[in-house]
Write a sequence for this structure.
């Protein structure tokens, strides 16, 4: 059959990304622009009263009229008893109690690359260790295409194979983002078995809780800069072409 004579074995691979949870630190130029915008906005705030400021002025006028015995009690009927000054004091108390979470997590400190709770200001990509021939290599999750499948469904099956069916991810598009082609060693290469073509798809992780996931291989969550510690150079070049940090 035509399938039996196919010289290239086809694979679908999934580039699964955990998106950043916090913003990256500002560069020097960004800090300067932010300071300038804050100054401009500060001047605008001085020239225009907000709704809250207008309300506060009206309440101050009412208190002044009350002290001068010119305040009409009928004006207060049906109005809220919570005044603008009370709200400001409440907001101030909440602000004083607020404590920002640290940007550097315990996983960062221990360099635990199996944790999703690291490098919160960067994309993280899932790598799994797979056996290719007689080698064990770090790769994006991949499985071989089966007749009747689309390449996207093959890539989705690859993701489910290593993470289980509980994984929640949004796959982007039906077309692959890249392709990696390689030939088999001459010792096992034949006319009908020349090499493999790996088609890369991309997905965003929707949930950070993988407690229900059935992890079936060694895995890592790494940044773009860390990919070079694990991927072969030619494979890395193909991945870097479609991976944005």
């Amino acid at each position: 059959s035509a399938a039996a004579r196919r010289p290239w074995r086809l694979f679908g691979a999934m580039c699964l990304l955990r998106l950043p949870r916090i913003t990256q630190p500002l560069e020097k130029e960004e800090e300067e622009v932010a300071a300038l915008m804050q100054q401009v906005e500060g001047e605008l705030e001085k020239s225009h009263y907000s709704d809250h400021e207008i309300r506060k002025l009206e309440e101050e006028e009412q208190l002044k009229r009350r002290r001068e015995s010119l305040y009409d009690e009928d004006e207060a009927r049906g109005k809220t008893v919570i005044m603008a000054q009370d709200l400001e004091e409440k907001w101030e108390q909440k602000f004083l109690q607020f404590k920002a979470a640290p940007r550097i997590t315990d996983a960062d400190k221990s360099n635990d690359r199996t944790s999703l709770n690291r490098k919160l200001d960067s994309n993280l990509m899932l790598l799994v260790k797979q056996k290719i021939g007689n080698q064990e290599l770090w790769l994006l999750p991949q499985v071989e295409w089966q007749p009747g499948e689309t390449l996207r469904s093959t890539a989705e099956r690859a993701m489910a194979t290593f993470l289980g069916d509980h994984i929640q991810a949004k796959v982007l598009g039906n077309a692959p983002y890249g392709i990696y082609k390689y030939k088999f060693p001459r010792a096992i290469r034949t006319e009908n078995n020349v090499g493999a073509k790996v088609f890369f798809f991309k997905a965003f992780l929707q949930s950070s809780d993988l407690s229900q996931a059935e992890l079936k291989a060694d895995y890592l969550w790494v940044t773009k800069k860390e990919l070079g510690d694990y991927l072969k150079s030619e494979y890395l070049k193909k991945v870097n072409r479609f991976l944005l940090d």
Notes: Residues 28-47 form the longest helix (20 residues). The chain has two domains: 8-23+107-241, 28-81.
